[in-house]
Give the backbone structure.
Amino acid sequence: MFLKTSYFIFAIAAISISCSSALAETERVPDTQQGIGALGRIEPRSRVLKLSHNAGPEGARVEQLLFQEADQIRAGQTLAILSDQKKKKAEVETARARVKVLQAQRESEHAARVFNKQEHVRYQSLKHDSATSVSLAEAKRLAFEQSEINVKRLSAEIALAQSELKVKEVELSNMYIMAPIDGTILKIYARPGERIGDKSVLEMADLTELDVVAEVYEADLLRVKIGQSAHIHAVGFKRVYNAQVRELGFLVRKNDINDTDPLADRDNRIIEVRLTLESEAVTELQHQIFRQVKVRIIP
């Protein structure tokens, strides 16, 4: 009985040592074989653009909205018109009219200058004949000089009026919200009649190319290289998507994306790494912008 008990204890001890050795071997597996894990978010390569007004500190109100959410737009298209557009347009027309009036006055003064110059030259040749001729010659000289001064003054006034016209034209252009890129309208925050708030008029992005922005721990950054492959996964995804490291961030900061684990560190220091998603993922994930995903970068 004693021998059987001793043999049983010895067998259990051997199994325990064997398991401990296997566990130690597992713990010694380099982390590079497991990849670099990080949390990330889906984001358009163009970034999400927030389009707002440039109407000055007094703010602006939307007069007309020319597109709706999910509409495809082209760069340069007008997306919205602000409420002061008619007023600014009238100011531009007034400034243009002033420029035309001044130009007409200068043309008239220029014609008078040509005549006065001719008279001045003619009376210069006659001023030695009599005192009357001398007096008239002096008057013609003064008229000619005054015409030259008037032409220069009007030219300066025209230049000033043209500068004011440019300012009015810029103010008018600020009454239109234009698309800076080709893309899709993702969200509208201010509709006709509403004042534009801090969230801007709308958000848009080019959804033809998607990225994943991974928040990589600062200690792991030295192992990340441009061109490395990665796998992207999240609950509810049809499959694991492939990606490739394209950009490494420059700033070390606190993480924005927190794990759902209540024990997870909320004060990690991270660097953003941007990865290009495979083209097949665009159609399936373009409605999940800013969705949190899990990233595994393969060293």
